[in-house]
Amino acid sequence: MKLVTQFAVLAGGVLVAMQAAQSADQRRLEPVAANSPYYNWSGFYAGVFAGGAHGVWTVDFYRNNNHGHAEEGADGAAFGLYGGYNYQFANRFVIGAELDFGKSTASQNNNIFDNDTSLAQFGVFGSARARFGYAFDRLLLFGTVGVGAANLTNYIQKGRNAGEEVVWEDQVKAGITAGVGAEYAFAPNWVGRGEYVYTDYGMVTLYNRDGNRAEFRNELHLLRAGVSYRF
Question: Over the stretch 110-164, which tens digit does the pLDDT of each residue have?
């Protein structure tokens, strides 16, 4: 609840700032270089995004001499905020840095193996990424790479014996994130975006009280759209 409250406060602050910025004079189309008519992507920006989230939750469970393997999908929605800075060179190449912060509802809860219950949840997430792209006037195609982190829950109940329960709940795990996307400046200060981002949060190894071992791997695919205001 604390993380959700902080997210709501942050979202409100960004929306207020965007409304205040709307009342300012509109940004002119500054030339990239002398006598150049092209749109200039340099500057700060902030925006909001929403889309779909698909988590991939893989588990290998080792019990006595037995090995069970399962891979489950965890689907849901994702929404949040992003902001950063771009710098455009005279040759229309663009580099930048971006932060995002959001919430995912992606989860799965079902039976795997024979009589076992599993749960995976992908909650609050964020990333810090570098961006690089090429501008075709008002259209920007870009790639992005960086480090992401998320609040994760991994759970497996082997049989009905509480001693065989394996739980990794509300923990933060970091990993590598990368993606591609496109932006289009549909007004001097307003930019729309479509983006795909993949994050691999790596492996978690747990042991229960009976000495059984579970190896969890968490991956998250985001397909999202956004709109931002350029300051």
Answer: 766 666 677 888 999 999 999 999 999 999 999 999 999 999 988 777 665 555 6
pTM of this prediction? 0.79
Question: What is the C-alpha to C-alpha distance for residues 130 and 182, in angstroms, rounded to an integer?
Answer: 15
* Residue 220: CA count within 13 A, CB half-sphere: 36
